[in-house]
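Lecture notes, unit on protein representations.

Consider one protein chain, 253 amino acids long.
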Amino acid sequence: MTRQVDDIFKDNMEKYNDPEYYDLPFLLEWAEKQNGEIVDLACGTGRLTIPLAEHGYKIIGVDINEGMLNRAKEKTINMNLPIQWELQDCTELSLNTVGSLIYMTGNSFQHFLTNDSQNRLLKSVNTHLVDEGVFIFNTRFPILNELAIIDESKHTYFDKRNRKVTECKVDTYNPLTQILHSTSTREFYNHNDEVISIEKDSISLRYVFPLEMERLIEQNGFSILNVYSSWEKDPLKKDSSEMIYVCKKISPY
């Protein structure tokens, strides 16, 4: 029976700006080594799904956000690419395929806020990989002296509609749950410098420590092939900003 989707997925969509394509060459390198369909988890609007398909790879793009997935479909409607779009919860994948490469970028792993959701994600990935299949994902590195500080910032800018906007952002980290809560409040002004509307949004992100991640991965039937601090394959260090894991399925969940 399908579980009810956690609010952390439907109500916790980060305000993503497409990053530079540092991850694409890395993923293309691994795609060349694998056979069969590739699965792009939390694919969003197809930032990586589409370029990989343009290189000739048959790929399934999975996301729980219907709006993003519809946008991805719109972008590819006349492109005749080998892409299958699926609206699914990554913790309960039901794909009619078992492949040799699954990846999840954009630090999407941090949206899985509980131990249970992390385990269910890895179980879903495991069951959709062949033996020795590869799972690649990234997550932000937990730098304690940064997380421990309540971070407040405020800045003013003009948006695309030339409206003056003042945005206040507050980040608060809970060490008991290892979750960072980030709230943004935006005030919109008219030409008389009067506030005409206010918007608020928030996001919660789970941080996982390296040894914790090692145990999590191994307990879910994977071994770690490599850990990097960048898509350029720099080694992980104490002052790294992110962790990139390349994992191999060694046993069924």
